[in-house]
Amino acid sequence: MKIIQNISAAKNIHKPVLTLGVYDGIHIGHQAIINQLNQMACEVGGESVLLTFEPHPRITLNKGAESLQLLTTLDEKKELLEKYGLQNLIIHPFTKEFSQLNAEEFVKLLKEEIGIHSMVIGYDHHFGKNRSGNYDELSRLAKIFDFNCIKINEIQANGHLVSSTQIRNALLEGNIELAGLGLNRNYSLRGKVIHGDKIGRTLGYPTANLKTSSYKLIPGNGVYIVKVLLGEESFKGLLSIGTRPTISRTNEKRTEVYILDFDRDIYNETLEIEFLKKIRDDQKFDSVLQLVQQMDSDKAQAENFEWDI
Fold this sequence. Notes:
Helices cover 31% and strands 27% of the residues. The protein is built from 10 helices and 14 strands. It has helices at 28-44, 57-60, 74-83, 96-99, 103-114, 135-145, 164-172, 176-183, 199-202, 288-303; strands at residues 2-4, 16-20, 47-54, 88-93, 118-122, 148-152, 156-157, 160-161, 188-194, 208-212, 222-230, 233-242, 254-259, 270-280. Strand 11 (222-230) and strand 12 form a beta hairpin. Helix 5 (103-114) packs across helix 6.
């Protein structure tokens, strides 16, 4: 996959078949559009293209950036798009000046700079200043600027409309299975192992404290069975997300992973965590002994889980 840093550097793509958007999560709806792109590009002897933006528009426009929770970091997005066969990824800087282009100005820019042959967008996609452009407007502009346009209808999983928002809500509720259906994969996050207060090791459960990327969505508080990836190695794990109410006097939220049958120094290493199942909520126990007994039960559940590693 070729990565291009702005629209003006994308002049040499042959018969571009293009879609655009943030594409957070690369869920099954996004995957359907990419498949359609690749198929059309093959039919016309062209190349598939996704135009996306960095930073996220909400950050540039200061519209709720403090509550922004992304399913995929830019690096994760690149890896997934390459996996699904995209040929060209344009990462255009999203500036306030760029945000002022109306729908027609934006489409004209795409035609002049990229030379789009065709555009494929989702049924509910909006573009241009104040999100004024939609599929009907794109169809009108396609006739003016001489390119084809195709609409992808809604995609459902298990009777639910698939969207990035729906998947975020499922993860925040701890519904890992529903999120996985929408993504067609396990939700994952990456984190650097940092020093904590080392309370876990005194309880017989040494944990790795994770520092994750800004804006990356952390699922709802609780204990999860997870697959832990360290380089090319895979391990069984339990991940705790929460404030540790039994042993901590602060409300600081921690993301900590206990790796089963593991005893190595991994400070400053990066772990990738794949969420497999939520087994309980974060809760306060009457004593440390009760907490340890519950952790023993959690470990037993993890050991008896049907692993595929």
